[in-house]
Amino acid sequence: MRARIKREEFKAGEALPTEERICAQYGVSRITVRRALDALIAKGLITKRRGVGTFVTPPSMGGVRSVRLSGSLDEFLASAGALETQVLSMEEIDAPDEAVAGLRLQPGSRCTRLELLSFLDESPLGYHQLYLRVSVGRQVKPADLGQKLPVIRMVEDKLGVRVVRAEQVLEADVAGAQAAKYLGLEDTTPVMKVTRIYYDMSGNPIEMIVARNHPERYRYSIDFVARPEALG
Fold first, then answer.
1. What total of structural domains would you count in the chain?
2. Is residue 108 domain-shared with residue 139, that is, in the same domain?
3. How far apart are the C-alpha atoms of 37 and 43, rounded to whole Å?
4. Which residues have a Cβ under 8 Å from the Cβ of 99 and sit 6 or more positions away?
5. pLDDT tens digits for 34-43?
6. What tens digit of pLDDT does each residue of 196-208 get?
7. Torsion-angle region of 22 (φ positive above 0: left; ψ -120 to 50: alpha; else: beta)
8. Helix (H) or strand (E) holding 177
9. What are the residues whose beta carbons fall under 8 Å from the beta carbon of 11, sequence distance 6 or more?
10. Co-location of 106 and 141 in the same domain
């Protein structure tokens, strides 16, 4: 399906075939089709409209250019753990579409959501919505969350799994009501939105974080270094 979208066999804004037709075309189960569609939603290639259907996402003005970078997960988590964090809430909710796609949940599933507020020099830096499968979330106790360690490290210990990879997407967005409330911004203030998904050794998503960061306190800096073999 992804290749057909890239080849523009399905045009921007065009509806995709129903799940039943896709099952018949590819000879796979509905669960497999739903997981594939969820993956395409997570990559921003398609959009699901409740009660209407699934459509190819139109490109934004001038298209979207993605740049892939890689780095050390352990170094990133070490830096993330240096921030002070306050737990605002923890509850089971109906999983929003982005959590369904990111965690590969069945539509209509529930998930555990944590709301967190990070601080830099005692000033609010980022509003974070962290999503876990319910089976994972029920093993997490509020008392476990008062540490500086990233939540994912605590989840690793609870589940006895090892996170080996994370995908992170940065994009422009507006603060929205909840982030604006805690960051002291207007709802429509432009912010940097960061979406990050952690995966275990089997490629299963373990945790998803959606963060909106204060535009005057958050900067993303990257150093580019040539590979040794490129230097001769």
1. 2
2. yes
3. 10
4. 105, 111, 113, 131, 208
5. 888 888 887 7
6. 998 888 888 989 9
7. alpha
8. helix 176-183
9. 56
10. yes
